[in-house]
Amino acid sequence: MWEFLLRGSYPITVWLFLALIGMALGRLSLHRSATAWGFVLAGSVLLVAAHLVALVPVSDRLLQAAVFDISPHSGAMVELVAALGLGLLVVGVCLGASHPLRWQLLPVAALGSMPLTAYTPHVVSYFVMARPDGRLAESQILLWSTAILLVACALWSALIGRGPLETLAARAGDAAAMLRP
């Protein structure tokens, strides 16, 4: 249980923090260019600050692992701040580009409108594309998953609308809401 909460590649305490921040930021006026620029600025500051703090020499190995380790999925505080900064920076750039490039970004918007539907085949595709030793070049995963998901989600969105797993989740939520005492 502690592994799930505090350690491993995806500890719930770390990623729940980022999800809650994302939910709070989602309540802002995302259509305003000032919001996009604010995300870019805040994200850049957090990202640079995290990388600078990670350079601080620390002799205590436990302190290094808990606070100053910036390696991916370390769960350290500095890595969490860097991930938050990068996320803000990327979201800010995407928000800024979304208005002038609206039509060109429709496949990306379709992909973003069905995260459950997109993530499930992404995970399955890793096992399909993996070599017998279970390894696969990262560039292959990224290239093929991105291309296939962009095309498939754009077609699904244009022809049908909401993603199938999003529809299933919505129906389950509606059914659960009707069961209240």
TrEMBL record:
- Recorded protein name is Uncharacterized protein
- UniProt keyword list: Membrane, Transmembrane, Transmembrane helix
Q: Which domain of life, per UniProt?
A: Bacteria
Q: Transmembrane stretches, by residue range?
A: 12-30, 37-56, 76-98, 105-129, 141-161
